[in-house]
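To illustrate the input format used throughout this study, we show a single complete record. The first block contains the structure-token representation of the backbone; no residue identities are included at this stage. The design step must infer an amino acid for every position from geometry alone.
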């Protein structure tokens, strides 16, 4: 689950929410990584992955930085990130190897 500035994991067995991260900029999208170990989320100008394992502390990795990110998709093989956004004057669908 996510709202404008926070991302949570919901435990369906007992209905509890666990905060994954809180940001100072608006979250525009969030999705599970196919491995189930990470969550990928977007803001208006970046896409990042955050580990769900919080035994020590969660590692947060910026995957790409573009402007005007409109959406993203991770293929089921977890090898490619597809996104819609802009890089300078170029707008369109971009891909990044994971």
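Output of the design step:
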């Amino acid at each position: 689950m996510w709202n404008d500035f926070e991302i949570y994991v919901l435990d369906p067995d007992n209905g509890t929410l666990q905060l994954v991260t809180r940001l100072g900029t608006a979250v525009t999208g969030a999705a599970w990584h196919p491995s189930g170990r990470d969550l990928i989320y977007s803001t208006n100008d970046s896409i990042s992955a955050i580990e769900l394992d919080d035994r020590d502390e969660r590692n947060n990795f910026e995957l790409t930085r573009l402007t005007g990110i409109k959406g993203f998709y991770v293929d089921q093989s977890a090898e490619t990130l597809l996104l819609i956004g802009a890089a300078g004057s170029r707008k369109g669908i971009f891909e990044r190897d994971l």
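Structural context for interpreting the output: Strands lie at 6-10, 17-22, 29-32, 38-42, 46-51, 60-65, 67-74, 80-87, 90-97. The chain has one domain: 6-97.
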